[in-house]
Amino acid sequence: MAPYTPQQNGVSERRHRHLVETGLTLLHDASLPLSYWPHAFQTATYLINGQPTPLLQNKSPFEALFGQRPNYHKLRKFGCLCYPLLKPYNTTKMETKSTPCIFLGYSPNQNAYKCMDPLTKRIYISRHVTFDEMQNSSS
User: Fold this and answer.
1) Chain CA centroid to CA 92, Å
2) What confidence tens digit (pLDDT) does each residue in 89-99 have?
3) Do the domain assignments include residue 26?
4) What domain of life is recorded for the organism (predicted)?
């Protein structure tokens, strides 16, 4: 196969390229470093699986697998500033209720968001998050 000729790539190579390009676009748009690539690629997979495709009679892969449409209302801008409710993580009543975090995507096994505190690098999984999508967390 000749280099730089995508028309010669197989289906799996094209899908992989689409996933990588989407993930890198998310990182670039959020002004996040490449070290966040696992979160960006997981979010890219989540987004791609929610998009309708002509191959499935304009259903998304999610809909074809689970028989229901994906919830597009829960989509948020990758890398934006967010404030998760930290009450479940607190050990005392006096701890802060929230802290500024980076939105890193969606929990793979819960109906919740992944948020990371940039100071401590701790990841919080929370359903109750306030988003500031007009501001990147790196701003």
Assistant:
1) 31
2) 777 888 788 99
3) yes
4) Eukaryota
Confidence (pTM): 0.84
Closest Cα partner for 43 from 93, 92, 95, 116? 116
Tokens of 3: 């280099």
Range of the domain at 102: 10-136
For residue 48, give the amino acid letter.
Answer: I
Could you tell me which of 17, 62, 63, 44 has the C-alpha nearest to residue 104? Answer: 44
8 Å CB contact between 113 and 129: yes
Task: Count the domains in the chain.
Answer: 1
CA distance 133 to 111: 20
Rounded to 10 degrees, what is the CA torsion of 93, 115, 122, 36?
Answer: -170
For 6-33, what is each residue's pLDDT tens digit? 666 677 788 889 999 999 999 999 999 9
Q: Which residues pair with 105 in a beta bridge?
A: 114
In a domain, 56, yes or no: yes
Contact assessment for residue 45 and residue 99, using Cβ atoms and an 8 Å cutoff: no
Do the domain assignments include residue 2?
Answer: no
For residue 138, pLDDT beyond 80: no
